[in-house]
Structures
1.
Amino acid sequence: MTSAEEKKPIDIDETDREFVEIIKKTGGPNIQSCYQCGTCSGSCPAGALTNYLVRNIIRKALLGLKEECISSPELWYCTTCYTCTDRCPQDVKPTDVIKAIRNVAVAEGYMLVPHQKVALKVLETGHAVPLDKESWQKLREKVGLEPIPPNASRFPDAIDEIKKIAKKSGFDKLIAPKEEAA
């Protein structure tokens, strides 16, 4: 974005007045309590290392700039550490607001490829980061643990259940690669 675009005034006809209500219903009920103090952005460990500013995303949402919010790659920089939520003086729960906006973004077809790959891995294996069975099994046994942890690795039927839930909820279609979804 160029500096001229950044300074472009907001066209009220291009805002989505319902966006705040959608966010409130999907997990950010206190968003309108935000008075832009900046505590969230100043507290954010991800923001210290990137151009991620929680406050900017919340401001865009409050202004009804839905498309700018849901298409922003920065939306996905939040690590959900909840530091901003712990420190927010208005109980906005910025992390929940970010997650609510992400839900809207995914429903509208926006998701960063790495996040999509993690979600696909969960459907495939039951885990975001599945263990390499052979090497991890040996290591677990070496330290006195059962070779297979008590998760979907041990219970393959659980993976089938995850797939059923994803299919029933439509999540499988939301995370499908664009070619498959069409």
Note: The two ends are 30 Å apart (CA to CA).
2.
Amino acid sequence: MKSGFIYSDDNKRYHTWNYHLRRKFGTKVMKIALNAGFTCPNIDGTKGTGGCIYCSPSGSGDFAGDKRLSTEEQFDAVCKKMHEKWRGGLYIAYFQAHTNTYAPVHELRERFESALERPGVVGLSIATRADCLPGGVLNYLSELKERTYLIVELGLQSVFDETGERINRCHTYAEFLEGYNALCSRGINTCVHLINGLPGEDKEMMLHSARTVAALRPHCVKMHMLHVLKNTPLAGLYESGGCRLLEKDEYVDIIADQLELFHPETVIQRLTGDGARADLIGPMWSLRKFEVLNAIDKELERRNSFQGDKFQK
């Protein structure tokens, strides 16, 4: 059943990643999550230690490849798992864990070029921080985007600097804008990450972050709920009562509000997230991914609203 949304050929009322890739490449495209073994400036002491308070020891790469293996070996191992669910299709090599521009250019080149050489790879997705984009890296990214479908993913999470300090992000919103604008000026596709339910934030703050990012017109966005993993600083904060987790209905309402704020052309890469089941402290409802996505669909249908209904220039 078509929803009537211009960037949809099914019941979705928002611009899904799957729709975008099928239109661009004409077939199923799978992300292959890889771990290049890099670190972060808020882990190694350059800007801080401990990393973001919600980050697992794998640097948000819990479902990525084994960093002890080569890029080629990781890629093939993850592909094998993916093909247990799907047959055929093309691939985007996704450098997911930690900060994937936080290394000398020759090291980045070795990793990224190895991934591009794997059969069926049509693109690169590179997760990083906006304050880790020096001139040499930007020059290399500019070269890459001429040869492949390139997306640079920037972990912002919130536009509020007080929240950034609370989560140990170790860079400001002004620094984010500097990096974001440097990418955009070179025509490099960007994806911005936002997290709902961060400590100290209420709904209006979450909507303000979404509205502010929407006005930037990024190529893609990722939004998901805060979840607590074992062996993270956030786990201690949660267990001591220092933060609470969103309920499912509360989260669905926030996401529906946020989707209405983004321009219809902005691709929504994800609307939910979870951690490895063995490490997840909560919210446990986040493990039921399709239930969450179905609830978002039903809420938009109930409202008779679509992505972009409240977009503001």
Note: The mean pLDDT is 92.
3.
Amino acid sequence: MNSLRERMTRFMYGRYGSDQLSKLYLGLAMAFLILNLLTRLGIFYLAGMAFLFYGMYRSFSKNIAKMSAQNQKYLTWRYQKTVKYSNAKKHWAQRREYRFFSCPGCRQKVRVPRGRGKIAITCPKCHTEFIKKS
């Protein structure tokens, strides 16, 4: 058992290994293969196998810089989507007390209290002043 572990360690030396993007591809492969079992459509099988092979290719690749850059791009995209979702959730929770406007100069989101009538809003980022009804 110990020699198998050593052989596997030697094999993986200099290879990229598993990361978040590889895990995503392997998860998508599993989902498509399960869909194939349920629907018996060949397209799901082909998509599942493609994701499986590409996920394995990424894990065993020796081009560490390229795979790391792809993973970083994926993590940045995922972080941006998480922040957008979090902000939308906050806006939804505060919709009764506040109104949200975009600054016409820089597109910065500005939060103002509801029920104040027409007010002059000054953007905190670019100091553009605009009038809106709260």
Note: The chain is about 60% helix and 15% strand.
4.
Amino acid sequence: MTTTHKQDSSVLEAARAGTRLPPLYRVLLLNDDFTPMDFVVAVLQRYFGMDHERATRIMLQVHVEGLGMCGVFTKDVAATKVEQVVSYARQHQHPLACVMEENE
């Protein structure tokens, strides 16, 4: 009986070892000279669940460094967030760019 139990746990370990997590993607906002800073803060709060302080820090990073990371997600979630942000920005006539890249 002990041997059977031991075999089951070794099979379970082999199954776990073969499972790989899906690749993750970073969602980034890119700086432009036209989108208002308060709009960027609102986007970060609305689509990435950030509080005002964190959203302001990311917005300033975008402004100063040219880009800022909004979060890391699975491919489908990242693509949806990019689509939502770009669509929302266009609805408000802002050129805000949001992209995703594989997280290394």
Note: The helical segments are 2-18, 37-48, 52-65, 75-91.
